[in-house]
Amino acid sequence: MSERKEAVQSAPPLLPRIASGDPFAVRSCIDRYDRLVWSLARKLSEGHADAEDAVQEAFVAIWESAHRFDPARGSEALFVAMIARRRLVDRLRARGRRGRTEPLDETIPSDEPPAERAAEAALVYRAVRTLKPDQQRVLALATREGLTHEEIAEQTGMPLGTVKAHARRALIRLREVLFGGDPTDEKTLTVEEET
């Protein structure tokens, strides 16, 4: 075993200090785990510059998750590797989703007048505004960020079942407002209480 690896394994954990706001622990964390995070980033990135960005994002995710570290559940190095890998995989997924999207000018029919597109956009905007705030949030994370239900649950702290229920209710509500009833009717555009 290398001296560096041995020193890392025997050193006291840094994440509890980071969670408590110790600014010196952040620098120590970078010094201790830079090689680990960098090696993961190189494997899961497209080129050197992308890997550098990925390392920064991974460390931010590690610091944001520092309060969740429990030494009884595993070593600090394992926790750091897990958080960094999860963040790096999220980057890959996001890049894959962006790579699969078509340019906007190809997705909108060119023969449709701009005024009609604007009217449709306004109608959709008004329909989305009828949703409850949590439904709007889940819908935005799913459509704008391309997150899965599991990723939304993790990011928002909502239970997975709640995320799925919000997504389903939001889509049902949008379908009702946009296709079932007069969308300009004030009663249709008010937020209804769900039972």
Short summary:
This protein is mostly helical and 195 residues long.
Describe the 3D structure.
- The longest helix is centred in the middle third of the chain and has 25 residues, at 76-100.
- The chain folds into 2 domains: 3-100, Rna Polymerase Sigma Factor, Chain: A; 107-179, Arc Repressor Mutant, subunit A (Orthogonal Bundle).
- The protein is 69% helix and 0% strand.
- The chain is elongated, with a radius of gyration of 23 Å.
- 18% of the residues are buried.
- The protein has helices spanning 3-10, 15-19, 23-43, 48-64, 76-100, 104-107, 114-129, 133-143, 149-156, 160-179.
- Helix 3 crosses helix 5 (76-100), helix 4 (48-64) crosses helix 5 and helix 7 (114-129) packs across helix 10.
- It is mostly helical.
SSE order and pairing:
Layout: H1 3-10, H2 15-19, H3 23-43, H4 48-64, H5 76-100, H6 104-107, H7 114-129, H8 133-143, H9 149-156, H10 160-179
Helix pairs in contact: 3-4, 3-5, 4-5, 7-10, 8-10, 9-10
